[in-house]
């Protein structure tokens, strides 16, 4: 397993330099809606060089050499098999609390998505695993129609825990699935569905709080239930290459889902979801933090990192499987590696909110603005997606598909049109 790094050491090292460098009052604010004067040169399907990963651009042979300890522990994935097989996980985000929101083995994820689940500013995350398939992943929560739409562009098996239903309304997941004519078997793995054939891979972790305690034995599910599938007819290869020319400095990026104030003004914990990304030049990646104080983001910043499990004791399920989980795990949960991002993409979307701002109905088709943060630089562009089965393509200022850096990417789908009675403009992105 990759060497674990102490949370306190990381915070001390990173925040000591962050305090000296950042001043949010003078940071530049992005423009979600302004005309960027970009004429799109429509991109087709990117070729996939078989020796590299289509999700991270990393060399597969080098990944295997660098991760012999992981291979010994039974991790699967493209770095072992060479087979392109993305799997999507609905992660709970920080719903359990800022100190409980770490993804299980999240540092092995390739692409993260973040989108608001309520207009007040709570978010939920999804993770695409392809290069590495960890033994355990989670914790999982319920899905929304926006994440079903993301699943469509990957054509990936999707693990989640329940679904939002509204008796056939515009945000009803089952209605949306019916329109897509999407079969559930070996595609949608809903932990609340009651299926008996994959309950053995769904587990409750005693150390995690109720509602955020369901994880999956992904390696077991991947090897025994999903089977090999061909994704050649549904290519989602990203473009990787050198950084674009130009760009302005972006050593700190702030993504606000609610700009009302501080932790003390928040009765609903939305401050968990406001984020700061700090560029680490040595790693050539952005380190992510949850922040409590909008005027001083370094104050009480919480590092975004993974959970790892040790001292695992599993209690197997018994009887007919009519239980909340396939088995229970008593394990020691500790923090592992910081989850850093080579590419931070802000994709501005228009969102319709139903039922008092609790049921999101995002528009993920068409064209909108996008901002890219890579290599300590900021670049502007636009995104485009014509049909629900198409991949979202990100374009640079020159109108061509922008090249990403090799490594992990996070795509933040920011609903710039959100409005609250107490805060007419809750969303904001700034950088410096």
Word description of this protein:
There is one protein chain. The chain is α+β, with helices and mostly antiparallel strands and 432 residues long. It has a single domain (1-432), classed as YerB-like (YerB-like fold, 3-Layer(bba) Sandwich), CATH 3.50.90. Helix content is 13%, strand content 31%. The chain has seven helices and 24 strands. The protein has helices spanning 7-21, 60-66, 68-72, 78-81, 145-154, 173-180, 218-226; strands at residues 28-29, 87-91, 111-116, 123-129, 136-138, 158-160, 188-190, 202-205, 214-217, 248-249, 252-256, 275-280, 285-290, 302-303, 305-316, 327-338, 340-341, 343-354, 359-363, 366-374, 377-385, 393-395, 409-415, 428-431. The strands form three sheets. Strands 2, 3, 4, 6, 7, 10, 18, 19, 20, 21, 22 and 23 form a twelve-stranded mixed sheet that branches. Strands 1, 11, 12, 13, 14, 17 and 24 form a seven-stranded antiparallel sheet that branches. Residues 1-20 have low confidence and may be disordered.
Secondary-structure blueprint:
Layout: H1 7-21, E1 28-29, H2 60-66, H3 68-72, H4 78-81, E2 87-91, E3 111-116, E4 123-129, E5 136-138, H5 145-154, E6 158-160, H6 173-180, E7 188-190, E8 202-205, E9 214-217, H7 218-226, E10 248-249, E11 252-256, E12 275-280, E13 285-290, E14 302-303, E15 305-316, E16 327-338, E17 340-341, E18 343-354, E19 359-363, E20 366-374, E21 377-385, E22 393-395, E23 409-415, E24 428-431
Count of distinct structural domains: 1
In angstroms, what is the radius of gyration? 20 Å
- The CATH topology turns out to be YerB-like fold
* CATH class annotation: Alpha Beta
């Amino acid at each position: 397993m990759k060497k674990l790094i102490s949370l306190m050491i990381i915070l001390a090292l990173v925040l000591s330099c962050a305090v000296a460098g950042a001043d949010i009052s003078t940071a530049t604010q992005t423009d979600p809606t302004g005309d960027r004067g970009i004429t799109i040169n429509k991109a087709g399907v990117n070729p996939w060089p078989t020796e590299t990963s289509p999700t991270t651009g990393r060399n597969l042979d080098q990944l295997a050499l660098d991760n012999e300890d992981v291979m010994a522990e039974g991790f699967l994935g493209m770095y072992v098999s060479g087979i392109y097989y993305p799997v999507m996980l609905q992660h709970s985000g920080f719903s359990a609390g800022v100190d409980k929101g770490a993804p299980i083995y999240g540092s092995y994820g390739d692409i993260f998505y973040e989108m608001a689940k309520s207009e007040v500013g709570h978010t939920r995350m999804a993770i695409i695993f392809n290069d590495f398939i960890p033994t355990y992943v989670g914790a999982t929560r319920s899905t929304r129609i926006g994440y079903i739409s993301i699943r469509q562009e990957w054509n990936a098996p999707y693990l989640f825990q329940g679904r939002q239903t509204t008796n056939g309304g515009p945000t009803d997941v089952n209605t949306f699935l019916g329109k897509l004519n999407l079969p559930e078997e070996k595609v949608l793995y809903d932990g609340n569905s009651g299926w008996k054939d994959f309950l053995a891979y769904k587990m409750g972790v005693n150390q995690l709080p109720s509602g955020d305690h369901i994880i999956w034995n992904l390696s077991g599910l991947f090897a025994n239930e999903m089977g090999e599938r061909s994704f050649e007819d549904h290519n989602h290869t990203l473009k990787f290459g050198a950084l674009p020319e130009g760009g302005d400095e972006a050593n700190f990026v702030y993504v606000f889902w609610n700009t009302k104030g501080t932790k003390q003004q928040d009765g609903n914990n939305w401050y968990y979801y406001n984020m700061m990304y700090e560029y680490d030049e040595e790693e050539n990646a952005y380190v992510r933090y949850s922040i409590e104080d909008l005027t001083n983001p370094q104050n009480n910043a919480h590092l975004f990192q993974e959970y790892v499990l040790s001292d695992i004791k599993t209690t197997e399920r018994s009887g007919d499987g009519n239980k909340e989980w396939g088995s229970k795990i008593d394990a020691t949960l500790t923090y592992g590696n910081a989850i850093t991002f080579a590419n931070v993409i802000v994709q501005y979307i228009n969102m319709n909110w139903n039922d008092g701002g609790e049921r999101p109905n995002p528009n993920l088709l068409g064209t909108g603005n996008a901002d890219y943060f890579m290599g300590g630089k900021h670049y502007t562009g636009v995104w485009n997606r014509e049909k629900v089965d198409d991949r979202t393509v990100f374009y640079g200022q020159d109108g061509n598909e922008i090249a990403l850096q090799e490594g992990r990417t996070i795509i933040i789908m920011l609903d710039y049109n959100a409005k609250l009675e107490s805060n007419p403009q809750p969303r904001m992105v700034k950088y410096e």
